[in-house]
Amino acid sequence: MTETAPPDAPRDELFPATRRALLHRIAVGQADGRAPSLMGAVVREGQLVWSGARSMMDGHAPEADTQYRIGSITKSFVAVLVLRLRDEGLLDLADPLRTHLADRLDVEGVDVSMGDATVAQLLAHTSGIAAEARGPWWERTPGELRPGLGEVFGERPQRLPAGRRFHYSNPGYALLGALVEQKRGAPWGEVLRREILEPLGMPRTSIVPQAPHAGGWAVHPWADVMQQEPTEDMGHMGPAGQLWSTTADLARFAVFLTNGDDRVLSATTVAEMRRPATPPDGAAWEAAYGLGLQLLRRDGRLFFGHTGSMPGFVSTLWISAEEQLAGIVLANATSGPATSLIAADLVRIVAEHEPPLPTPWRPLPQADADLLDLTGVWYWGTSTIGLRLRADRWLELGPLQGGGRGSRFRPEADGTWTGLDGYYAGETLRVVRTESSAQGSAGDGSPGILGTVTHLDVGTFVFTRRPYDPADSVPGTLDPEGWRGF
């Protein structure tokens, strides 16, 4: 068993008892899963604070720089490339695929009915396209067996109506890779390197393995023997699971998926990726899928990230955004190691051993008198709502008791605010005032004094300072007798 010093943080970042518990967890995972080797890592608040490994060979274990094949974690990288295209205005997620790939689908003999699936449906696995590629087991055979998209999909690729339900589709991501290539005019792997890997500082993530890298093994299910698995270039299926990476590189990707990076994608867009794209099953759902990211509920936490498997390898990246923690597990066995559970446990161990300290309260750098006057109690009908002023002129609207509608609001240049989450996400908050006074505007170019605030308007919802007061701007009619007993 080895513990490697994190490249981005001091070795003593975690307490010794925490490090021991983490090492114990991956040791149990390697032994119970009968993995030739297993690596684990933890990211906390943007830093790789721990990594460790367990190997079948005494005195020899992989380092944080050792590559493993990461399988379907590749899909999250491809999704980022597609969302970059969307953010640049080169496509819309509601676009049918044929809008951008009609000529190629026709030339390569792909059933054009697949073109009805939208970009969003492909990202979220709701396109209804077949789960696997045509022909022999695509993960263990060379991509040359499928020289064109027609050979990937074959006959009847559309298995379910588009948009109706979640149906995981590996070939669907082959189409997304083709979409990236069409829009960028370069192979998807080259686009990946240029637009994600280089900006995020991930030099050890690649399409083909680069030394040092682990070998992939199949362990016999009923005997402690093993044989080596093939390593194939999957060709058109590469966007579904081709990549190799390291715990150190995936730690940097985890930080990006948590906070965003304007060189790649904004924080708003990465947050969009991790919202369920289809309604989860039941109120107590445990798993869902966003736009290229899986979601998991475990131990009272909401994780996002992705799992991966290829012949000879299994992997997991789970992130708890609320706790600013991520767990990474890589193993070189076709099956056996429960990497999803181990990665979640790494997060749990750190959270339980070293719960984060809250950020110290600090006052705002300056007080905005106009905004300060807006804070306090408002009423939507008879519902009591509180408005709070946050840093940088942000506002937060929410119920004072019980459940109810609320949102954070970002200030805009035109003097309005835009809702970022909750019921009012995307809606506009306006402060409605009486007409401005002429004072202060005589000849010196300064604006007039702002008028008196009458109400707040949030997507036509009117919030007043008193409930149903005739002096306030209450939509509709009011009982002329006003408030009375009975």
TrEMBL record:
Signal peptide: none annotated. Residues 27-350 form the Beta-lactamase-related domain. Residues 368-465 form the DUF7586 domain. Pfam families: Beta-lactamase, DUF7586. PANTHER family: D-ALANYL-D-ALANINE CARBOXYPEPTIDASE, D-ALANYL-D-ALANINE-CARBOXYPEPTIDASE/ENDOPEPTIDASE AMPH. This is CubicO group peptidase (Beta-lactamase class C family).
